Amino acid sequence: MRSFALVSVLSAAFLLFAAAAIQINAYPGGVSGYTLKGPSPGCTCHTSSVSSSVSLVISGPQTLQPGETGNYQVLMTYTSTISKGGMDIAASAGTLAKVDNRLKVLNGELTQPSSQNAGSTTLTWLFKYTAPMTPGVQTLYATGCAVKSRWNHAPNFTVTISSANPALALTAPAGGEIWYTGRTGLIKWTSALVNNVKLEYSPDDGVNWTTIIASTTASAGQYSWIIPQISSQNCRVRVSDVSNSQLSSVSPVFTITELAYSYLIEHLHHNNTMGVSQDSGKLVILKGVVTSSAELGDLAFIQDSTGGMALSTADFPQFGSEIKTGDVIEIKGRVQNDFGMTRIDPLVSYMKTDSLKTVTPEAVTIRAILSQQWNGFEEYEDKLVQITGVTVLSSYSLWSADSMYTLTNGTDSIEVYIHESSSLAGTVIPRGQFDLAGLTAQRCGHSPYSSGYLILPRTPDDISNITGIPEENADIPSAFSVLPAWPNPFNPSCTVAYTIQGDALVNVSLFSSSGELVQMLKESYEQQGYHTLRVDAGSLTSGIYFCRVTVKNSEKQIKTAQTIKLMLLK
């Protein structure tokens, strides 16, 4: 009996010791069911009551959409160093997930894989919570210990699972990008409960909108957009729900511009079957020597080693004062067709890089100019050339501005145009043969642009090697003459030109078709020679008018007059 009793006592003692050992080292790899969610909350294996020296706080989004995932944390604070940190996190419904290896999933809850030594008085546990698909209010729970026998519960944290609402958010472009025309831009967005979306763009910061695509699947989340030919620093993209345009998202401002490529000028004179440059419409960068700056008004020319190019400088009135013939410039602009003539219009920018360069006119024949491949390579288009041994078919003694003349070498003939800005206007037309330099151009009134080649001389220096015998006093007009006005018909102004053979009092007046004086345009003493007068009819109505030029010789007191008809079309 004694031995049996002794054995019983020893067995009981062993069982108590083993149980205590198991309880002290219970769940070294984490626990579950210890939060306020469970039926027996608390770390009662260590002590049966919470410790005020330990506090826990859950933080994170308080509202989620059904199925949405939020980021959360539990902050543990202890009055001393946390050396045996443990944690149990639970949710009333939904799914918990770890963020790092300091937590693991156990029975649908989160717990530590091993006790954590924070080395400080605080310890943060990060986790993710995915809401259930049913709207309602859910609760997050947390219970943790800082050291053995020091534990506490976190205040319950409620998360409202709101009713599902459609959502749209544009993510690209994100603002500040530079997108280039003709290339592909990737528009991106996120959506929820939206079937189809509409995409639009605005070049003016949202004032006006143009449709990119009327409807595309929302779940695709992206769309490859071929960027249109616009240039703006105030572009935006908008994505909206096709079934509810009020649900939309607009991008921040970004830039759309065109990528310009550098070319040799020759490349731009290869034409299609209609006589139009194959590069028409392109934004290009060219570099060349200026062969005409302001000699031909707002039509300038440059030339490189391969060819010449005309430039419209109408948008840069200061061009002629800043850039001189012989300067080297780099320009950016768009290739356009103007009645068969390839030119840069508009000119976007220009920069002077050198000066005092000379371009020698290329010696060509009239036949070579006329037989260019208008539907292939127009070799001489916009180039500075020189034709030799030509004569003018004209009975006039002076060149008139804005007038066309015929030049011939006895076999072929070509038109020469005296620009209204050319200093040739009013100078003597050579009699006999001479050499003429100028810029080749084209003015064809129909498509295909297969004809209309002409020469544009710039100054009197473009005429050389006159071999004919000039008339005596050829620079003095042989008689008083009023030349045809240009342009005519006109709107709102035109130029009247006249020559007088001696110093005289000149009166220029404008009359209506009924003979009523409308306006005296000029009355003054003028010297012999060629004169022009600008007629401004901006305040007049459309109709037929007559311009009468009256000349009174100061010596012989002889008074003569000539009248020309003008047509104002508004």
Q: Can you put this structure into words, describing what you see?
A:
- The protein is mainly beta and 570 residues long.
- Among the domains are: 108 residues, Reeler domain (Immunoglobulin-like), CATH 2.60.40.4060; 91 residues, Immunoglobulin-like (Sandwich); 102 residues, Beta Barrel (OB fold (Dihydrolipoamide Acetyltransferase, E2P)), CATH 2.40.50; 88 residues, Sandwich (Immunoglobulin-like).
- Helix content is 6%, strand content 47%.
- The chain is built from 3 helices and 40 strands.
- Strands 2, 4, 6, 7, 9, 10 and 11 form a 7-stranded mixed sheet that branches. Strands 13, 15, 16, 18, 19 and 20 form a 6-stranded mixed sheet that branches. A 5-stranded mixed beta barrel has the order 22-23-24-26-25.
- β29 and β30 form a beta hairpin.
- The termini are far apart.
- The N terminus is likely disordered.
Question: Keywords for this structure?
Answer:
Immunoglobulin-like, mainly beta, OB fold (Dihydrolipoamide Acetyltransferase, E2P), 6% helix, elongated, 3 helices, six-stranded mixed sheet, 570 residues, disordered N terminus
Fold blueprint:
Blueprint: H1 2-24, E1 54-59, E2 63-64, E3 69-78, E4 86-91, E5 95-98, E6 104-106, E7 109-111, E8 122-130, E9 136-147, E10 150-153, E11 157-161, E12 167-172, E13 178-180, E14 184-192, E15 196-202, E16 210-217, E17 222-226, E18 232-241, E19 244-250, E20 254-257, E21 261-262, E22 283-292, E23 299-303, E24 308-312, H2 319-322, E25 328-338, E26 341-354, E27 362-363, H3 366-370, E28 384-392, E29 403-408, E30 413-418, E31 434-442, E32 453-456, E33 463-464, E34 481-482, E35 493-500, E36 504-512, E37 517-526, E38 529-536, E39 543-553, E40 559-568
